[in-house]
Amino acid sequence: KDNDAVFDYSKYCEMQNGLMASSGRLFRFYADDEDLCATIDSWLTMEPDDIEVSDKGGVFDKVHVDNTPLEKTFEDLFVEAYGNDAISYLQKEYSLSLRHGRNAFVDYVVETSTGSYAIEENGVHYHHPQLIGLEAYKRQLEKQNTLSLMGFKTFRFSFENLRFKDQAIDSIRTFLGPKNAFRNAHYIRATRPFALYTHQENFLQEMRDARKKGINTTLVVEPTGTGKSQIAYAVARILKLPWTTLDMSSIHNSEQLTGSPRVYSNAKPGSIMEAFYAAGESNLVFIINELDKADTAAAGGGNPADALLTLLDNIGFTDNYMECMIPTSGVYPIATANDKSRISAPLMSRFAVIDIPDYTPEEKKTIFLKFSLPRVLKRMGMNREECVVTDKAAELVVRKFKDTTGVRDLEQAAEHLAANALYQIETKKLERVVFDTEAVDRIL
Questions:
Q1: pLDDT digits (tens, 9 = 90+) for 398-423
Q2: Strands 115-121, 103-112: pairing kind
Q3: What digits encode the pLDDT tens for the residues 110-126?
Q4: Three-class DSSP category at 118
Q5: How far apart (Å, rounded) are the C-alpha atoms in residues 248 and 250?
Q6: Strand (E) positions, 22-136?
């Protein structure tokens, strides 16, 4: 109630974590809901497939997402709890479809052999029920209930929960379990439902057609920033296989791929062998990013990417360090490139080539309003209600960047608008800022 004293939020989080850990599935409700019985009944009888999938965001690459101070504190404790390589187990900014076509982001997800865990920051000023208001609190309940419906257990933390390091580390370990049960975020099985844009759906259909002809290797040629990882993620989900990635832009010689002979003191396995080892099996979707970016200059005019030929031929792969053949009949290679003219003829002959166009203006508008802008606002510690962009204004944003491919410029535009909104809120004491076409034209 408005006139009640503000209760201790850290105790609130601890209580929820305890109930979540001890329950098979936990749903939370607002006690004064006028339709409480109907609300409870709807969640208890709902199935995951009943939620209309509108998520077109995929999983954001963690290196492109800035931490809030509270997230930074959690990640430091997570590393202390599980070791320096532990950060690779965190899927950051996990995108989730809610009911009624809405979307939400989960701060972190950890996949383990025993189950899936969501990890949510609960800063007091943006999550405390008595401070954020009833409607915002109900949205939080819907988000956590959706996670429970999908089979996740949610670990929640505030600054107070992380204040005492040893106690916080013990809580994290107790809730998430041992490290040897974790699955690396780059090698998880793709089980999360999500939707694709038209050009991505077209790619999947073309890939299916190629597989019917016996061609399992696919080269995707597309503009920068048009959703390569979402396509690959969809392929892995359809095939029910784990996936791994290899970034060719960092490859300067073939030994990085095939490993060094053991006669050298600094010998080690190559990137391909390490990928198989991390995945734990050779039946997987192998995503070869930026195939056209392999460093031919450093390779003395040759192309280090040609070392991939045995992998693509599905005749088995032999690493020079391991000196044993890895069966590759169950490998589904998917390569991506921006310029296929830079790929050697022998490599090109192994692929079914699929050219994918850029996002349509309508798709870019959807991405800007439902993903880029909310993501920037979260990073800046702002609520969505504090910075609103009208539909017409969003269309203008898209038109301003019509000559650039992908959606990276849209996120920069979102950052400019969010920063302007924050400045106006602080200096003019406004509760919210609405950007129309005139305001967008002036700022951008």
A1: 999 988 877 778 888 998 999 999 99
A2: antiparallel
A3: 988 788 899 998 876 66
A4: strand
A5: 5
A6: 91-97, 103-112, 115-121
